Amino acid sequence: MTREEFALFLKSLRDAEKKGLDTDAIVKAHEHENVYIYNDACLKKIFASEKNIALTTDLVNASLNLVGDNRVENPKLVNPFIPGELGYRNSEPDLVLVNERENGQPRDRISIEVQHEGGLTFKNRVVLYVSRLSSNMVKKSEPPILENLNLVVFQFFDVYPWRVSRNYRHSIQLRNQEQLLYYDKQTITVIEVKKFFSKAKYFASDDSRLAQWLRAIDTLNRGADFSEFANDPIFGVLQEEAKLSNFSSRYLMMEGMTMTDAMYLVYNEREKIARNLLKNGLSPKDIARNTELPLSFVYEIKKALERGY
Predict the structure, then answer these.
(1) Whole-angstrom Cα distance, residue 46 to residue 35?
(2) Contact 137/146 with Cβ under 8 angstroms?
(3) What share of the chain is helix, strand, coil (3-state, %, to 5)?
């Protein structure tokens, strides 16, 4: 399912629960469909599962562009998904791994985060994650000897405009005004999913493992033909794990609905605000800036109003 389809599906579960209907029957009716993999709860169940550690390892190495001896080989989940157990929500990432290195090299700590909405709030949270993950490495009253920290962010808005950067993967570290590296143990890797697909022709020849991952996930989210990925054993596991039949209605309502459904409803609320502002004569550019809706979407609302919808 796409994000919008999955949000509507979650809403149907909530509405059914309020009416005392059988929510498991709704899940059963959609069991051959796929979940929206980038949903927080779905991501955690798939990639924070001990049985899928090979899947998660492959995604991490692809995201960080690690090859050869630098690859993550035997990571351990810090907060694994436990079947039959509901988690709890806080301000920390859902997926954190550690990876031991040989020859006395610092251990890796890797976290994966997904973000659909942009703005300063998210940048603040990314920096907060880095700070908290770093501080958790040091015990009280001990010298601050830090591990290698990698925060991987899959985001659906541009971190850098196309005119500034024609990359969709960005490795961000502390550097000085001359772009000299100051500290190499903290890296934020931002993957612009939206840019990768909006500029699909430009990236058509990109056959990197990360590009393969992005296309495989997108294909499953859209419910499209997956045959080109079928011979890859890692993506075969992903295809099986993404099926809705693996998710209980209770888990989806408790864990999955809060973020996806809330953001869907917020988006709809912004659309209503945009409609009213257009009726009052405010320009589409001003509306897009104040509601954080895409300008193209505001223009679509404007055209709909002009047609009487």
Answers:
(1) 10
(2) yes
(3) 50, 15, 35
Residue type at 17? E
CA-wise closest residue to 79 among 105, 101, 55, 97: 97
Give the domain ranges of the chain. Answer: 34-242, 266-306
Q: How far is residue 228's CA from residue 307's CA, in Å, rounded to a whole number?
A: 42
**What letters, b where the CB count within 10 A reaches 16 and e where it falls short, cover 47-79?**
bbbeebbebbbbbbbbbbebeeeeebeebebbe
Q: Which two tokens stand for residue 141?
A: 């009253």
Candidates 75, 73, 66, 9; CA nearest to 36 is: 9
Tokens 């493992």 identify what position? 209
pLDDT digits (tens, 9 = 90+) for 41-90: 899 999 999 999 999 999 999 999 999 989 999 899 998 887 655 554 44
CA dihedral 269, 271, 274, 280 (to 10 degrees): -90
